Amino acid sequence: MVMAKKLERQRLKPKRGNKLSGFKAEEYWLNKKGCPIGTVPIRKMTKKQLQSATRHVPSSFGHEYFGYNWIDVHPSLNGDNRTHMYTKWTVDGHQKTGCYNTKCPGFIQLSRVIPIDYAFPRTSQIETNYKEEVLLRLYQTEYFDYHLTMPVMNEEIGMWPYEVFDKLSANAADLVQFGGKVYTPGGQDVSPAMGNGQFRGGYWQLTCYMRKVLYEIEVDGQKKQVVPDDSKIISQDSRCYYEGNHYNANDGYWDYNFLFGGAGGKDQWETCIY
């Protein structure tokens, strides 16, 4: 397996027009196909990056949770300032367990084409209709494993075996969160930007957004995808990060969607994160 380092570092110039694109193996792999059958991509890491991947970052969760994201700029973890996909998990609020991606026993890489820490060669252009999007689905199997997939490619990216969790495996989740998250390392007093670094309510061309937000429930033994219930949604703004314009378009494209983000920095001599 040979990864095309030049292609990985290259920022391809997007074409003009109203175009929404996704993963293209030929932009990432030297052979334009991925790893040979029977193998999966695993990123090589320095000792410093490995320490960052297993560092226990403070969490608002005091119990089991896992997450998957595709907007991640994490220089100490990835060794660059590019946008990566990533996952992380814990069973005790990151007290003693959990890590990013495959840097400790937990998440299992299944796809030989899409690595869990995939670096996107392009990003969205502000004030244009050109947007980079990735639609992901997380579901629980009859064996209580959790699988992460990319539906448009019908590709299983990876899974968390049921043995990793106790409550989540037996009873499923009682809380689902969507949105952005930022982290300020110790010793720094400037909060990083979230999303594309700005928030303009009502303007999806200028603001980071999520669309087709759905979650799965089981009714009479049958699984069904539903949109969030507005009466059960709790939203939160901070001094420098915002969310808004959440509504259900019921059109098969946007469906339930919202905007989020902010510039970060400082606000009245304080960092922007509570």
From TrEMBL:
InterPro entries: Glutamic_endopeptidase (IPR053168), Neprosin (IPR004314)
Neprosin PEP catalytic domain: residues covered: 1-273
Name of the protein in question: Neprosin PEP catalytic domain-containing protein
